[in-house]
# Entry
Amino acid sequence: MNQRPTVLLIYTGGTIGMWADPRTGALQPMDLAHLEEQVPELGRIAVDLRSVAFERPIDSSDMRPADWVRIARIIGDHYHAFDGFVVLHGSDTMAYTASALSFLLEGLDKPVVLTGSQLPIGTIRTDAKENLITAIEIAAAKDEHGMPMVPEVAVYFEYRLMRGNRTVKVHAERFEAFRSPNWPPLAEAGVHLRYDRAAILPRRNTGLRVHTELDDRVAVIRLFPGIRGSWVRHALSMPGLRAAVLTTFGSGNAPTDPEFLDALREARARGLLLLNVTQCIGGQVEQGRYTTSEALVAMGVVPGADITVEAALAKLMFLLAQEPDTELVTTRLRAAICGEFTQA
Ligand code: ASP
# Structure
């Protein structure tokens, strides 16, 4: 009997599997067979590894909500045959995909580890091999009871495993490209792989339910000093728009300019949901702490606590798809679904 853990590798694209076009020097995705050729070490890991790939691997800047659903479906279709899943993905929008998967895969109790790299796998100084090999080890890891060590969606990058919906890409060049500013790493890889069990979500025994609907009628508005009310009014008047993430200053503060606030009030009066997420990398929104957020409280802007913009956007798309009544989404936003924010 085959006792080796089974892991499914899902290749979607990204730098990890790119090669340089000799004519232009621009990086473009290579297919899975070529990728596997570059890492003969894969054959030496004590894991039964299978793989599937997007028909056309993509740069993650081209990822759309439909692609998140595509990945979720692949995991759902293979869920019972595998102990864990590794998603190879471009780093640029990996935090969005990881966030979306955490909501789409309700009741997940196996590891789904997203990873990628800053340098293509064929290059001498590549960070891809370590990321890939360790991600596979984590996806296969079991605790002393034979249960999956990390039963949640996570991102592995440069010696750190992080909760997927807590990660942000913070650097365009460094190998250490991701951070989880408001939640401790789930594991650190040195000589040993050290898991922080207290940081990992407890296993859910509800069974997996794969959601396949997302509502993309959402927007992100990043505030800046001097932002004009007329511009905000225009942006929030987009036909069909149901919700917007306002990325605010510090602990959730915004200008007190009457025209700006009127634009928000009008949007609220039309039933638009507004979610307040800080522009800061770490820390949380505390509406009402400063007078500069009092008007937001009065008009019913939802405080996002320490959620990332990436997770906020994915959660809104997920909840709006389930709930035709936008006000009910407001209530559901206030509860954490899978560890995406720190609940008071
Ligand atoms: N542009 C690439 C992507 O996100 C960058 C990377 O993979 O790191 O697909």
